[in-house]
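Bench notes, bay 3.
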Amino acid sequence: MFQEIYIVDETEELIKKLKDKFKQDRTFRFKNVKTQDIEKALLSIPDLILINEDTITTKIEELCVAIREDEDNSITPIVVISSNSDEQHKLSVIQKIVEYYIEFPVNEDILYHTIKNITRLLYSNRTVSPLTGLPGNVQIQAELKKRVLSRKNFQVLYFDLDNFKSYNDVYGFLKGDEIIKLTARVMTKNIHSLEEVDVFVGHIRRR
């Protein structure tokens, strides 16, 4: 599954450095976004947003609030990179629910691992099935929306276990849980063995 990182920056310098740094990580995709296009960009629901405060054409606090008020991006992590070292300014930005504030000049290794760690943590801690560990309803809905908006062809496979309630009635819920976990393992093992890397496996949790 690809990790889409949006960089709000009026220049191309930062994205060039990141693409070079992540050239061995095929699952990361970077896209440069101009400040004026941020509303349109948010429709794609990126996994992480980096903002170069030094180049944007609006106040950083206003921009962060606008991102947070977007329903689909209310939990999208935001990293602000800035040359402003004023402590009060940092506090003002962090108070807008920004995850990290990094000062220029940026240590590329630190930025690299910050991005890797945030996306790893987000993937692990978003709504997932506690039984299978697979992404749950929120992520499935977001993933489908992103793919529809991309206007690229994709396929959806939906798997269900027939007569599963009857199985639970006879063998009990613990045995039923083992069947669900086995099904998840078989599916993910086979799907991720394919050469195609842009795949997504989720577990719908019925309400």
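Next record in the batch:
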Amino acid sequence: MGLFGFGIVLAPAIGPAIGGVPVESFGWRSIFLLPLPFCIAGILIALKALARAHGHPRRAFDAVGTLLLTAGLAALLNVPVVGNHAGWLSVRALGLAAGGIAIAIGFIAWERRAPSPLIALNLFEHRAFIGATLVAFAYGAGLFGSTYLIPVFVQDIASFTPSRAGYLLLPPGLALAVAIAFGGRLSDRLSPRRIIQAGLILFALSSLLLALADATTGFVVLAAWLVIGRVGLGLLIPALNVGAVHSLSGTELAYASAAVNFVRQLGGAVGVNLLAVILEWRLDVHGLGAAGAAFHECFAIVTLAFALALVPAGWIARR
């Protein structure tokens, strides 16, 4: 898990550093061309390297569940955006919220009777699994939310160029990649609960330090504070995977792995979404003259989220 995660997190480490150069040279639209060669390479590698399943029964794809989940998430993730601009009690915002909740209820009802559900809801009968998914949600929100906030903060407040803002994320990203490989080895020896709690504390400390940053905080200091948080995330994720599936067996393992990954990505979507809305709101309240205060409040929210995640982390078994 640690070595597999090394590849997954190395890409977000290198991506911002590479992406800052075309943005600075050719404008923001050029960033959307960057993924194309990697997508093509990924398809070719998958066709050659990934073995086809032979002799295993095929399960029907849950198309209905996929459509319901996609529609429900699209509606609910847009509620904060619409509410922030059109008003939280506007017809559009209330309609999206009601529609999203109705679709979510329909999704849960469908998944309970689907022969091959997209998400096995019976997994959430395990207390340890619930704890792991809540931590995974916080992990996604913290990782992707901070990856959104930091470049905006250093460009708007510290006047970094896009390329320098991208370079700022490179050392923490490399630290995350190394830490996740080390975290895999550590998870073989120590209690996953303790490793997860230590990782959450490190990231909360990093966010708290960023909440104290201002326009005079130097590049090296910011990078060091970010490294602390990324080391925490790197230690956390292998132990989180172990803690999520330790009490499961058989086909539950595959469903559990998919569910934890889904919740982690969902946390990233929700984190970026809410932090963007909150940042816009607080910038309106404070005004451009005190824009730093709005970023400080957003980093404080991330700190609080990771501190609260220590509670469900305690539900994960020691061994």
